[in-house]
Amino acid sequence: GAVVSQHPSRVICKSGTSVKIECRSLDFQATTMFWYRQFPKQSLMLMATSNEGSKATYEQGVEKDKFLINHASLTLSTLTVTSAHPEDSSFYICSASWPADYGYTFGSGTRLTVV
Amino acid sequence: KNQVEQSPQSLIILEGKNCTLQCNYTVSPFSNLRWYKQDTGRGPVSLTIMTFSENTKSNGRYTATLDADTKQSSLHITASQLSDSASYICVLLSSQAGTALIFGKGTTLSVSS
């Protein structure tokens, strides 16, 4: 149980376009989802926390207008990278939590390359 | 500042050998400590979860220990396999910061034949 599905696994887009990444909890309802960014050989960096039905909470230094997060249901959160630039190229990972046992399950990640 | 420090940064071992990865932390108080395995280009997968009152937790060939007095944790891998090659990340769930996960930078393990 507690599976989080993240799509797409890889995406290449042109500079200036927008990209949407989906994160779904398949067998549980995720009241809270988290979005991380990871650079090579670095640890995961929390970008934002999204709660179902409310606005996301962004970490300091993360542009909320550039990284749009929507958590419209208890099983789906999306991250949209707007007007992507090459410096946005990175590995993006979502995770979802459920109340019991403070469980956290991570998605498989999305490799974004902006050319 | 809450910190999680892992050592070594990288490690190369021969297939079949054992190894131990270290995690020192200053996070206090915390709810639990987790070890994750992250394959290249994939999301982290949970190996063990220990509360602050637990001393050891096993998951197959993986055994994690926790010493709350010295604020140290270790992950021991026995009879290593090529598929163990990955990054191993120590993560603490801080009580003080709500539900914030605090990540170590990971240890990159390479198992060679």
Q: Short description, anyone?
A:
The complex is a heterodimer of chains A (115) and B (113). Chain A is mostly beta strands and 115 residues long.
Explain this structure to me?
The complex is a heterodimer of chains A (115) and B (113). By secondary structure, chain A is mainly β. Helices cover 0% and strands 54% of the residues of chain A. Chain A has strands spanning 4-7, 10-13, 19-25, 32-38, 45-51, 57-58, 67-73, 76-81, 90-98, 103-106, 110-114. In chain A, the strands form two sheets. In chain A, strands 2, 4, 5, 6, 9, 10 and 11 form a seven-stranded mixed β-sheet that branches. A four-stranded antiparallel β-sheet of chain A has the order 1-3-8-7, with no helix packed on it. Chain A is globular. Chain B has 113 residues and is mainly β. Chain B is 0% helix and 58% strand. In chain B, strands 2, 4, 5, 9, 10 and 11 form a six-stranded mixed β-sheet that branches. A five-stranded antiparallel β-sheet of chain B has the order 1-3-8-7-6, with no helix packed on it. In chain B, a hairpin with a 6-residue loop joins strand 4 (30-38) and strand 5. The N and C termini of chain B lie far apart (41 Å). Chains A and B meet through strand 9 and strand 10 of A and strand 4 and strand 5 of B.
